[in-house]
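In these records, each integer encodes one residue's backbone shape. Here is one protein:

___
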Amino acid sequence: MTARRAPTRPDAAAPILPDATPATSTLLAAITRYARSMYRLRRGNAITVLRSGDALNAMLAAIAGARNTVALETYIFEADRTGLRFVDALAERARAGITVRLNYDAVGGLGLETAHVERMRDDGVQIIEYHPIAPWRQRFNLSNRNHRKILVVDDEVGFTGGLNLSDDYATTADGGRGWHDVHCELRGPVVADLARLFRQLWLAEGGAPYPAPPPAEERATRPGDIVARVVDNTRLRRRGAIRRAYIAAIKAARRTVLFENAYFLPDLPLRRALARAVKRGVEVSVIVPGRSDVRTIEYAGLYIYRRLVTRGIRVLRWTGPMMHAKTAVVDAMWSTIGSYNFDARSFRYNLEVIVEIIDGDIGTAMERHFRADQVTTTPFEVATWDAMAWWHKALAWLAFRFRRWL
């Protein structure tokens, strides 16, 4: 494979691997193989993979420890026990003089009562409701939603992944529903890119201006040695950026391609990339919900799963509470954690963000998590489809025809 040139754009980071050692040579080979672009790849990060309940607690702890700023962006924000813990945490920091900014999606935030929003505002939290449900407004757009999950505290620690602010994601021991999801905690230069994404949308949606955070390439602190990149689809010309990153890694795969995806309706180019990987001798396995919270996507998925398994792709259906994760790991070296689903909404309509990680330790941990999660699945096979009632097959066919609007 031809090596890609280092980025030359003004805001590009310094060279990823300035020193030549056997370790850096191995890492550079991995970057060259799996990364579609070296643009904004940042070295010097520390990343912690977090499961549902642990992620919620880590985020609350980070907010409680904020010294200067809190920037929170989310899709679903419920007024349940978990959601109100975040309401209280944001309000407390604002009362303490910390600058707190909240951007939540109007549709995802339908469960957040006006009284809670006003209480946060009264305590000093600056709040934007993304694309309010107001047809009389000139910029009204019901389809385009903000599905990103971003938390940045003091421009030093960031979080992103698939978790919303709801009891669905809290553990059953903590009074929640125990949904399975994955988030990550980030420290290092890549946090600046999350902060930049938050600020861009904040200003675009009419939020009060504030100074840009220090650029990633100017960050002196390097808490780790992990190479990572924030990939988003916010701007129109970048709508396919996340999908292209996935396909590039799949095409480069030598050993394994392991997905966990909550709403898995891959389009034809992605299905072809997965099938070609199988032909090269790569293990391709996907964990999907056994019973989805969106039944139309569940039925459309059944129709697609039949096609996938006939091409050697293993489809494993989660048997526990809802599986809401959006992760991937290729060859235990290239990984992603984020909000991106393989459905039409993520590709065409929603704002999404993932963290692309090139690191053997993180990749090994992600593969280990996947193998452990396999225990809570049952395989979907051709015989599974054949055993379905005719009307289930009919619903699957019908839902599949409407997949571009799901």
DSSP finds twelve helices and 15 strands in the chain. The radius of gyration is 21 Å. The domain at 48-218 is CATH 3.30.870.10 (Endonuclease; Chain A). The mean pLDDT is 91.
